[in-house]
Amino acid sequence: MATQTLTLGKALNAGLRKALENDPKVVIMGEDVGKLGGVFRITDGLQKDFGDQRVIDTPLAESGIIGTAVGLAIRGFRPICEIQFDGFVFPAYDQIVTQVAKLHYRSQGKVRIPMVIRIPYGGGIGAVEHHSESPEAYFAHTAGLKVVTCASPQDAYVMIQQAVASDDPIVFFEPKRRYWEKGPVESDVPLSQAYPLHSARVARPGTDATVLAYGPMVRTCLDAATAAAEDGRELEVIDLRTLSPLDLTAVHESVRRTGRAVVVHEAPGNLGLGSEIAARITEECFYSLEAPVLRVTGFDTPYPASRVEEEYLPDLDRVLDAVDRAFGW
Q1: Contact status, residue 88 vs residue 130, Cβ threshold 8 Å
Q2: N or C, which terminus of the chain has less Cβ within 10 Å?
Q3: With contact defined as beta carbons under 8 Å apart, do 240 and 270 qualify?
Q4: Which helix (H) or strand (E) segment is 267 a member of?
Q5: Which residues does residue 81 pair with via DSSP β-bridges, in sequence order?
Q6: Is residue 1's pLDDT more than 80?
Q7: Are 219 and 178 in contact (CB under 8 A)?
Q8: Euclidean distance between CA atoms 10 and 180, whole angstroms
């Protein structure tokens, strides 16, 4: 089995390359994705190898990128749109929620929109305003869209290919602060045998409390679990991976065993994914819970200036504090 060590960003690049090789109808479009290779170099080298008709540098117009991709998808192409930064997606929000999300339903299933919208998201890179948002709840709330996020190089490599192969529109969130983190990638696993796209995964088994996270916070929670183990607590960390549809089968099974649950995400807590997850756990596992489902999130403020962003982002100490509070009930 071919295994190599790649950064998460390089794994995405390899997955996109594989998708372009496997299907001539796959095209990549976005601002600076071609000659420059994207601001994070995720598409580096792809225009050189596949040409500017398949890796397309677009004008600085997110609405135009998505609108063009809708037409391509209707005509049988599989466009991959890159939104350069999370905070730049909002000019395209109208296209995404009124066209991309609705056309299959509106056409009574006659029209498919097989497109992927890639969005680097989250903080932790010292960026300026509009470059560190976590807008995943907007899209997970919208019926007709599927929303996923990767947390490791292996998942990045496989999940981007699975998203491109899907006949449904998928919003693919990429944790930009994790682009440079390395991990093993098995590159010869057929997609038909790979871990399912819309399934959660146990990232670390444990017995004492369940910690749920996705995207950039998975690493933070794994670090918290390592620290907790030094004090004799075994935390089970679950990487949700799919935000719409949510896969909570493994979550419910875990919470029934541990009796405690903590949900962690960077986005503000008010009406975030943690609210929905907490409600679902309470509905299904009420008699197993030893404490309320607790949330560790960003604060209900606009994302702050980079010099104070570490005060805003959930960290190891805040996760461990929530676990302590769960045990205090």
Answers
A1: yes
A2: N
A3: no
A4: strand 261-268
A5: 29, 117
A6: no
A7: yes
A8: 8
Q: Are 312 and 123 in contact (CB under 8 A)?
A: yes
Beta bridge partners of 155: none
Beta bridge partners of 79: 27
Identify the CA nearest to 216 among candidates 125, 323, 281. Answer: 125
252 included as an active-site residue? no
Under the banding of pLDDT at 50, 70 and 90, the label for residue 245 is very high
- Characterise 215 by phi-psi region: left (phi > 0), alpha (psi -120 to 50), beta (else): left
d(CA 234, CA 149): 25
Rounded mean pLDDT, 296-300: 97
**Catalytic residue selected from 104, 131, 141, 265:** 131
- Position 48 scores a pLDDT of 97
Q: Is the pLDDT confidence value at 53 over 80?
A: yes
Q: How far apart are CA 144 and CA 170, in angstroms?
A: 9
Name the residue among 79, 98, 74 with its Cα closest to residue 28.
Answer: 79
Structure tokens at 286: 């009420």
What are the Cα distances from residue 105, in Å, to 6, 30, 108, 168?
39, 27, 5, 11
Instruction: Give CA–CA dist 40/32, Å, rounded.
Output: 10
262: tokens are 């903590």
Helical spans, DSSP H, in 119-185: 136-140, 153-165
